[in-house]
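in:
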């Protein structure tokens, strides 16, 4: 006996018989579709950013890091990890890359030599502004097939998870 497989709408059998309804997707089917779709959207988003002149090293997650630092003015690395909901070692990887591109710099906390503060360099704010504009435009391009109502419905569904 063949395992049940969920088809895409294009692959579903067509028939005048209304008793043929598409199979109900399993939770696994939906999760796999969400993962594949997220990967595809991320790839398209990064491609659009590149077409809009954003350097490849300035990925969406790295821009999030820069924006979080910009919002605080100066922030401890541990507080940045908490704010972004990511692990400290991930913050370190982002910080290393952004520091190498001269967009941020580290300073030692004078009250706690074990802690490190992050601040933007003078080169960062114009890059952040350009990246924000490009990200907005890329987002519109990637999701152009969704109507305003569709976007609202998708947002509601995602928030319900």
């Amino acid at each position: 006996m063949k395992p049940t497989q969920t088809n895409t709408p294009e692959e579903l059998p067509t028939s005048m018989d209304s008793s043929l309804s598409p199979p109900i997707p399993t939770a696994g089917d939906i999760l796999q579709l969400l993962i594949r779709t997220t990967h595809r959207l991320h790839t398209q988003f990064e491609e659009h950013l590149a077409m809009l002149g954003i350097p490849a090293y300035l990925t969406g997650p790295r821009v999030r890091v820069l924006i979080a630092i910009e919002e605080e003015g100066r922030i401890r690395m541990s507080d940045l990890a908490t704010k972004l909901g990511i692990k400290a070692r991930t913050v370190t990887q982002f910080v290393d890359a952004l520091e190498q591109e001269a967009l941020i710099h580290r300073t030692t906390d004078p009250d706690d030599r074990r802690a490190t503060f992050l601040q933007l360099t003078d080169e960062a704010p114009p890059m952040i502004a350009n990246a924000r504009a490009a990200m907005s435009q890329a987002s519109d391009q990637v999701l152009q097939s969704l109507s305003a109502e569709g976007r609202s419905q998708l947002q509601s569904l995602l928030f319900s998870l």
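note: Residues 27-51 form the longest helix (25 residues).
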